[in-house]
């Protein structure tokens, strides 16, 4: 059995320790907001937080996540965390999503990034692009993502 804490709840999962966190979330726990993209940590669609850090769940075995906090898009979009709320609101204001497939990962990366900034920091466009560089969007929503992250940072300042 593998013990995972996901979105503040403890779970005992009967999965092989090498199972990627992505599949434990989607197939075992039914948390399908986290997406499978490339499967080799190159696109960012599967991004979740592990102890507050953005990680690629498609290449992270559940064994390495035991005893640590996993946060998924479900908690960020439904919770009342101030950073999550600011990002969510900015995403809606800027109508960021196109097909939407990459957006869960984009939001998780943006949220971890803004959580890591000292309060009051207003990142430049170059800072935001660097922070978001690991998340690919096939629809090319990068300009709206940049605006939304900047807007969320302003709201949090
Ligand atoms: Fe379609 Fe990003 S919104 S891949």
Give a brief rundown of this model.
With 157 residues, the protein is α+β, with helices and mostly antiparallel strands. It has helices at residues 21-28, 73-78, 82-93, 103-116, 125-132, 142-156; strands spanning 2-6, 9-13, 47-50, 53-56, 69-71.
What overall geometry do the principal axes of the alpha carbons give? globular
Radius of gyration: 15 Å
Number of domains: 2
Question: Are there runs of 5+ residues with pLDDT below 50, and where?
Answer: none
The CATH top-level class label of the largest domain: Mainly Alpha
Mean pLDDT: 97
**Which architecture of the largest domain per CATH?**
Orthogonal Bundle
Largest sheet: 5 strands, mixed
Q: What's the helix count?
A: 6
Listing every helix as H and every strand as E from the N terminus to the C terminus, the arrangement reads EEHEEEHHHHH
CATH-assigned fold name of the largest domain: DNA polymerase, domain 1
Query: How helical, in percent, are the residues?
Result: 40-55%
The CATH superfamily label of the largest domain reads [2Fe-2S]-binding domain
User: Which strand order spans the largest sheet, edge to edge or round the barrel?
Assistant: 2-1-5-3-4
């Amino acid at each position: 059995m593998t013990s995972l804490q996901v979105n503040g709840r403890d779970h005992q999962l009967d999965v092989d320790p090498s199972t990627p966190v992505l599949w434990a979330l989607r197939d075992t726990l039914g948390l399908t907001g986290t997406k499978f993209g490339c499967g080799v940590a190159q696109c960012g669609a599967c991004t979740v937080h592990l102890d507050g850090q953005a990680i690629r769940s498609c290449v992270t075995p559940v064994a390495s996540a035991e005893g640590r906090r996993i946060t998924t898009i479900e908690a960020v979009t439904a919770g009342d965390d101030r950073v999550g709320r600011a990002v969510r609101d900015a995403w809606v204001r800027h109508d960021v999503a196109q097909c939407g497939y990459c957006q869960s990962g984009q939001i998780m990366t943006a949220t971890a990034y803004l959580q890591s900034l000292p309060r009051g920091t207003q990142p430049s466009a170059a800072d935001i692009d660097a922070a978001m560089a690991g998340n690919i969007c096939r629809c090319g929503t990068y300009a709206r993502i940049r605006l939304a992250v900047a807007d969320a940072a302003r709201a949090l300042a």
